[in-house]
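Researcher: Checking consistency across runs. Here is MULE transposase domain-containing protein again:
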Amino acid sequence: MEFETLNQFRKAVQKFNINIGRSVFFARCDSTRSKAICYDEDCPWQIYCAKRTFQASYQVKTFVNEHTCSRDNHFKSADGKWVIDELEERIRLQPNLSVKEADQFFKAEYDVLINERKIYRSMKKANERIEGSEIAQYALLRDYANKILKTNPGSTVRIHTNPMPDSNPIFLRIYVCFEACKRGFVGGCRPFIGLDGTFLRGYYGGQLLTAIGQDANNHIYLIAYAIVESENKDSWKCFLDILQDNVGDFLANGFSFMSDMQKSKKYIRTPTSSCRHACAALAYQNKRLEEYAHNWLTMGAYNAAYQTSMRPVPSQEFWEHLDTLPILPPRYKKPIGRPSTKRDKRNDAPKDKTDPHRTKRRIATIVCKYCLQAGHNKRSCKKRKEAMGEGSAAPQVLASDADEDMLAEMYHEETLKAVEAEVVATEVGNDSTAAQTSQGASVGTTTRFVQFMLTTDVDGISGPKGTGVRGRGDGRGRGRRGSSIGAKNGISSGSSNSKPML
C-alpha cells in the first residue's frame, strides 16, 4: 500500500481506526517515516510507513491488524482537526446544518459521541474555512468599495463608521447602488419603490434594507441596498436621503412608495373590470392597443431597464489595498427575548436549613450607660471623664475604693474571730452538744447559723427553763425541742441585755 504524502497516510489511518472504534496515536513521525500504535499498551496493533528509495512515494512496511482492546465511543482519534474536516464537507452540502444535526450525523455515520461544545467550535472553524473570517471581511470593506467604484464607474458606495478615540473605527452602516441599477430604474421602470428590511443571521447581526422597483414585465428590479445596525428612524432616513440623490427627487418624479409590500388584489384581472370593455371598444374602432398603453409597459421600456450592463467585481486577490485604518466589526448584542435552552442549575444545590429556635446573630449598636449616646461605652465616655475630673481626682477615687475593700476585709476577720470564740465557749459548757453540732453540720454552715443567733453578754449562763429561740411554751409539745437546745447551749431568748453577734 502506497501513499503520496505522509499526511495522506495519517488521515487514512485515523479514519480507519475511527470506523472500527479504536484509539491510536503516532509514536514516531518525521519527514520520511511515520508509525502509529494503539493507545492500549497490551494491544499489538501497529502500522509503519516509510519513504521509498526509487519513487517519490511512501509505502507501508509493517502492519499488524489485530486489536485486542475493546471498542469505545469516546475514542481519542476523533480529535478537533478530524471533526473540522468532516463538518466542512457536510456544511458544503448542507449550509444550514445545526449542532444537533451534526451530532446525529456523527452517531449514525461513525458511531462516535462528541461533545456539543466541541461540535459548535468545529462548525465555527469550518464556516471560516468556507466563508472566511467575519472580522477580516469587515477590515476589507474599504478595499471592496474602492473596487466597486473602479469596475462600475458612477456607482455610489457610502460607508459610515463610529470613530473611537483609542482604537480603530467601528462599522455602523454601508450603502451600495450600482450605476446600471440607477439608469435602468429611471429609464425603464414604473415610478414605484418598495421598501423592506430583513434580519441578517450572523454573529454580529444587523439588518438589510432594500429599495425594489418593477420592470415592464412586473418582475423585481433591485435599485439599492444597505446594511445597517437596526431598522430605525435614523437608518431609514440615511438610506432614503442617499437614494433620493441617486434616482432624483421623489415628489418631482411622482414616485410612489410602499413599505412592507404585501399581496393585494389586482382589480385589473377581476371580471368586473372595464379593461375588457376598453379592449373590445378599441378593437371595434380598429385601433391598436399599444397606442393607448403606458410607456413603462412597452418593450422599449423593458429594454431600457436592462441595456446598461453591470461589470462583475473580481475576487479578493485582485483588490487594491488602501492605506487606511481597518474597520472593526460592530459590538456583539445579545438578542432580546431569546431564553436559554439549558436548564438553570443554580437552584439545584441544597439550601442550608436554619434552626427555627435560634435567632440570627445581630450586632447591636453600642450605647453608653452614662450619657445614653450611641457609638461608645461607659469606659470611653468623655462626659464621664470630664465629670470625674482630670489629674489628681483619679488617684483619690482609687484610694477611696482601696479603703473600702480594706475595711470590708477587717470586718470579715473580726466576725470570724468572734464566731470561733463562741464555738469554743459552747464546747466548754456542754461537750455533748458541740459533738452533735460538729457531726450534724459543717463548719461553714455552723458559722453562718451562729451569726444570726442571739447571745448574752455572759458566756455559759443559760436562761430560764422552757425558753429558747423557737419555743414559746413550757417545754412540752413542739416547743420542747427548742427549749432543750437553747438550755443546753446556754442561749436565752428573753433577756433584755441580749444583742446580735457581729
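Researcher: Does this match what you'd expect to see?
Model: One thing to look at in this run: The longest strand covers residues 220-228.
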